[in-house]
Amino acid sequence: MFLIIMVVMRLLELYCWVLLVSCIFVNLHAFGILDSRNRLVWKIGVFLERITEPVLAPVRRMLPMPGGIDFSPMVVLLAIQYLLEPALMKLLYSLAVG
To answer: What gap in Å lies between CA 81 and CA 84, rounded to an integer?
Structure first.
């Protein structure tokens, strides 16, 4: 059980990095720094969208978008950092002690 929890923790950490990279990628694309006509850039964009959209889309539907700013990645990152990871650590601690 310890190994499973540690793998899930690492996967959550990796997903946080993917979310951050996706946010940077979207902003670079929006400001015209990255050209989506480039095949590699397009493939990276599609990959990041396929990885992040299943999690971000439900959050986007619940949140208002004040000024057209998308806060869904921040909400997901905060949920991972302050809800999921502490819950997993508590579970890991209870397994170690008990």
So the answer is: 6
CA 52 to chain centre: 6
Pair 76, 19: CB distance under 8 Å: yes
With CA atoms as reference, report the closest residue to 72 among 8, 9, 22, 11.
22
Question: Could you give the 3-state DSSP secondary structure of residue 62?
Answer: helix
CA distance 26 to 5: 31
- How many C-beta atoms lie closer than 10 Å to residue 50's C-beta? 9
Radius of gyration of the CA atoms of the chain, in A: 17
Tell which residue, 81, 30, 26, 87, has the closest CA to residue 51: 26
7-59 tens-digit pLDDT: 999 999 999 999 999 999 999 999 999 998 999 999 999 999 999 999 999 99
